[in-house]
Amino acid sequence: MSDQRRRCINDNCTSKPKSKLHPANKSMCNYYNVPHTPYRRVCGACLQKSIIYFDRIGRRFKNGKCILDDQYPIKLTSIIDLSDSDDGNAANNDAEPSTENLNDPQIAKLRTLINTTLKDTVGQLYKKQEELCQSYLMSEKAKIEAENEKLNNLTQQVDLAIGQLYNNLYKFDSQRRFEYDKEISIVEDLNNTDEDTVLSMTLPRLLDDIPKECKPIRHLLKLGDRVYGMKHSQMRPWFEATITCEFIDKIYCVKFDDETEKVLNYKNLAYIDAASQAQYPVGSRVIAKFQDVDIKLTDKFYVGIIAEPPKLLNNFRYMIFFDDGYVQYVCHKNIRLMCGESPDVSDDVHENIREFIKEYLQKYPERLMVKFKKKQVVRVELNNVWRLAKVKNLDASLVQLKFLDIKFERTEWIYRGSNRLGPIQDKLCSNNQDKRVRGTVLTDVNRLLNRPYIEIDNMTENEKSVDIDNSDNTQNPQENNGVIKLIQIPANCPKPHPYKHHECSHFCMLWVHYDYSQTKYMNVLNIPLHYGFMRSVLTDEKLKLKKVIYTTPCGRNIDNENEMYNYLKLTSYNNNQMPMDLFNFDCLVNPLSLLSVPEVFIRVQDISYEMEFKPISVFNSLNDLVPDHIKYITERKIGPGVNLNIDSKFLCGCDCIDDCEDKNKCSCWQLTYMGPKTYPAIFKDHDDIGYSFKRLHKQVITGIFECNASCKCKKTCLNRVVQEPLKTSLQLFLTEKKGWGVRTLADIPKGSFVCTYLGVVRTEKDADSDFPLNWGEYLADLDFLEKVEGIKDGYESYVVQSEDESEDHTSSSDDEEFNPSWAIKNKMNIIESRMLLRKNLQDTNTKIDGKHKLSKLNTQQKDVSKNTSLLRYLDRDCGIYTLDAKVSGNIGRYFNHSCDPNIFIQNVFIDTHDLRFPWVSYFALSNIPAGTELSWDYNYMIGSVKNKRLMCHCESKNCKGRLL
Ligand SMILES: C[S@@+](CC[C@H](N)C(=O)[O-])C[C@H]1O[C@@H](n2cnc3c(N)ncnc32)[C@H](O)[C@@H]1O
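The joint structure predicted for all components is written out below.
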């Protein structure tokens, strides 16, 4: 109190400390924003300042001007509240009114009169002031609202810009992740010294070396012209000669430099100089220098045909198919044009390769070629015997193979599209021309198992670049397509308690009231965050490591799946346990990311009409279309003639009473393991097979057997994934060039189950009967058995390869431990294959002609190792069954194809163990950021449907250009 008496009420007072102080009334206290007490004091200067202000305000009041339209201090209540004004009192404090005056009735009357008059006048002024203030406040409010709107617009723009930035960042991030994946494979490549071509090792040729693409002119020959002539036969070298005589029909007599003379027609003569202006087109008849590094046969010209033009991919060299069966890359200066050729140039080539060349030129530029990596082993035909050879080197369309099973060392360059190669032969044998497309539901086993596999080189470089260029211009405007936002978890959701030391029990989770049935509209990774969990990404600055930590409702910090699983088990109550796929410990996955799209483009709220647990909206920002009507199903339907028994009595189940945690004890897990164990040379890492905490990181070609209706385990068991209702937040959207597609609204962690592919199970015959009307757009073959057969095919190659590494894996395949019926059948096939291999090994009788080693571009030999099929043992007559989703299907029918897919197919057995009827299920191949389209590799065989040509618009870096 005494302190208040000694200092000025203005905190910012600049007067000297000992300045004279005056009593401060309520208005002054208000002006300086301090509570009023009778002891407040104000210095002269500050008093003056406030008086000036009140004077100005008073004048405004008196003159009927708005008092708010001024630089007002923080509080004005006191001056507006006249009735409460203590100004008079303030005056009293300073100078006490004389009681004498008050008692005078005259003065009292006068005083009353003045008061009334004052009150009337002030009252009127007050009323006016009230109106003025009101309108002033209204206009201020309008101004603030306008300002607010401006700010809102600005915020929205900033939001959008941030969203776009985030999008780009995400794109970059996902690319980075992708590149990271690639990096790993590069490391593997290096270890294996794999290279796809030797192009990288050689310096690129100068483009100036290559003449322009125009037809070379064949000028007429005259006497004395120097030429190259066929001295002996098409298979032998050509030599320089001089035209000495000309007969009719372009027949000439030529004298070789060794004085021998020969009569040759113009198709057996070649110009002496390389064409300087023109590039030789594919199919041109030429002679070219053949270089054999091994036996030093250089500088000799042999006759052949141009098979590939010079281009970047082949380091600007021509690929030549020589008549003697050799193939080689040759640069322009070492090629001479023949003086003439037949209208169908294949008539001029040696009969050994005529058919091959004819077909090649007909189909060019579409070519089937085998994709190799160094050290891979492949079956190759040599002198009518199928042999094993190892990839030594690669050069664009050629592969150098070293034969393994012959006594002497032999290597040979072979065209990657030659039907002497086992994979090409297989493809030709199984080619279903003029039939519906065989959309296989499994990745090409060869590609998956790192074996040579067929690729189709069907585009010219120009075609490719046109396609890629176009794709860039056709991107949807980003805003229309939606932006990635980070969602907020509602503030009223339970938050983790601060941690206090305790033993966890169901009480730790009880209070958060977790109920999965209430999570329909939540993204799967968000669910724990709605029920008391917190997820944070911590950075260890020292180790430069990022780590995801979940804080549980009871405050415990958990940083790995094992611990989380134990926690969930320990704290579950009433069988209400959170499943493991609600959690993810990868810091590149953000559970809060969400694709936010403009509502106006949502055409249908749920394409499944609530048949799925999660709604699947339909988005279209390109036009007003909605998808054609189909019957949405959530279980496969059985078509005519299909005998599928899903009675659980026919299923083998496990006896586990836990969550089938111990994979060695659970008979269902063991069924899954059995397949890979049958092929030990291929599936080396047995610990890594199948689900891991409900995620699948690698395809199991031999199928996954989930726990089923006859098992004793709980529904929370870790071996139940595909049988659960849809969990991912998906959206059907119209793409620019591929029709409808599916994208994810939230981040999907690698290995997550996405959904199944459902349709009507039809017999192959039944499905083929709709052709060509139903050419296969929505068909997926249930070719599980065929693919398992594919693993077995060439299994010996791997055994041979591993023998190199002094490991005999064949013996372990005889392991008697696993013998359910289908594995026994597989084993029988392996034994048969081995017998075949021995037979092949006996025949090592190979010739070399001393100079130009025998070689062949093609073979007439049919694949001798095509052996029995598993299907044979199953005593079936229906061939492969197929899932037809054209009329009835689920969201799985809308996934488009990509040459760089982000989801893969897994065959899973749930309601039947009949191997012909797996559930076809999609899993995430990598972390998939929110907003990304989900696509798989259809594995269509290009050219397999007559008159059907589909360009691929997947726009991936590795796009092959054609879908069909
Ligand atoms: C199973 S459907 C996929 C859903 C389909 N987009 C729709 O609108 O119903 C397969 C068809 O989609 C189209 N498609 C899928 N992937 C494509 C791609 N990468 N490029 C071009 N078209 C594609 C082709 O028309 C193909 O026949």
